[in-house]
What we know:
The complex is a heterodimer. Helix content of chain A is 76%, strand content 0%.
Amino acid sequence: MAQRERSRGKAALYLVIRSVVPIVLALVVAGILMLTIGKNPIAFYTDVFNNGVLGGNWQASAVLMTPLLLVALGLVVVFRGQLWNLGYDGQFMLAGVFVAGLAPQMMTHYPVWAVWIGLTILAVIIGASWTLIPAWLKARYGTNEIITTLVMSSIGIGLTNILVQYFFQDPTVAEPTTGTMTTAQMLPNIPGTRIHIGFIVAIVAAVVLQFVISRTSFGLRLDIFGSSTKAARHVGINSTKMIFALFIISGGLIGLAAAMDIFGQWGYMRTNWNPAYGDMVVPFVFLARLSPLGCIPFIAFYSIFSTGGIIASQDSGLSSKFLLVIVALILIFMSITEYIGTKRDLGQSYLPDELKEVLRRPFDRIASQGARR
Amino acid sequence: MSQLLTHTFITAFIVAWLAGAMPLMLAAVGETIGEQSGVLNLGIEGTMLVGGYFSYVAALHTHSLWLGMLAGGIMGALLTSVLVILSVWFGLNQIVIGIAVTLLGGGTTAVLFYSNYSQSTPRVPPATWNIPGLSDIPILGKSVFNQHGIFWVSILLMVVVSWLLTRTNWGLSVKAAGQKPLSLDAAGGSVMRTRSEAELLAGFFGGLGGAYLALIATSAFTPFMTAGLGYIAIIVTMLSRGKIYLVAIVALIYGLSVASGTVLQLTALNVPTDLISMLPYLVVMAMLLVFARSVYIPPALAAPYTRGAR
Lengths: 373, 310
């Protein structure tokens, strides 16, 4: 029994190491890259920590974490089903623009709380509906959903800009922006902090999704569908329904993220604004092994890193796009760590057969030459 | 007067058409080579940006568009080697690595551009080639037959790729690697080697596409200038079922929508610019919806080949 406990502890530790190592490696390589272009990585990372955590800055990180976590949950659902919804930006923006565009007007007629609830539901519906065409194409013709969601995303972003300029434009300002909510019309803060209650919504959503995935029959069917569509068909899972369900839940959660972010943090929307939360979230969703609760620490880490990183890159004269490079490095190291881990678990050789052959060839040649001599 | 207006108008339209279609065509030809061999290169967006940036830098330093194009192609292949090593050699998930390559290409070029050129933003001088005789033809002479030599070489390269894929043993190996890698392995070919070669060539063409966009189509590099063109290249590839002439046709349809957008802006009509930038995507989505049935993907696409695995 004790031994089992210990091995379980060991397994958990192993899991943590496998999840943290890629991040550490990425930060080290990013540091080396910074050195090559003449920046001081230690000063940069210290600056990130100071501006992301210390002096109450952690609260700004928590505010950023709200939409990131909800988008991450939306990705967890589809990724578990081995489907790729990469159209998060279009879904987010389109849901957000309706919230920002309609709220200021509606709040003059209806109680604020009713508008919060009503528009949040609308945002969920819009986010979900923007996934319907890719879902249909995937279910009916097997068209690659990566591509269709990306194209729909571009259309959604364009449509958002048009909506801001021609439908929701605030007539009192010259810039193309929607009306702005007053502080009283935005979501209240958690008492004693500067974090709006959308943060609680995000955490609750993570808990609920964790429950659905690990404790309900839907979660089980989702995992069967994700591991093998053939097996899913054998046990009577309707793949068309499953594809639609997963895309709708995913788009809906991303719509929820938009509603919480607009109501909680921004209060308005302008053209050519795109926070692109989804791109940043992808690696952390995988590092969390597609577990909703597991996402929380990783997204928290990234929120701190992003909040501090934007200020730190301004301080050091580096483009904030450097964060993209770090995220890309995390993805690469994550895949490598995963590869090594799997091979180790299976007790297999780290090199694929064909590559080994290629590497062995020159040595064989030398050996045969030696033998001839 | 009105005669002159229509002439210049149509000339401008054809120039915009070719400028919109060519970068996409080059990138989609690259993607086609890769996909035929069974590798899904989702990083083509990053490859194009890297190709565009380094072609721009090289052209500024050497004052040669040719060397710029070459640099763009080589850097595109170099970035793609990340995908080759990780996904082709070690069989890591092509989608995850593809996203990483896109972010890496976009992030690196943006950081480099902002730290080196954001103050000065120099432009590459545009260049044209007048083909004697042909360039005197009324409309085509000033639009098609005064294109830079790079335009003609790009078309020649595409013909060469088409020949390679359909008429050579190498092309047969590439198709085998994408259709049934096991049979290629059994016949004594190397899946890994074939896919690596195909993917590096794909990266070269992706880089060329970005370089064409930066040097010929817009005369400058701006961060994230591709704005999803790489993803459209993947769609074009899927619609054209591995045939280069279909790649050219689909890319020309796309270019037509880009050009009509540009022309709509030139006219006095009050069309929202966002609608214009959305137009190509709407066209692509419409094509996908109409031709959904004929979208073709090689059976072994995005599946790493492991010898002996079932």
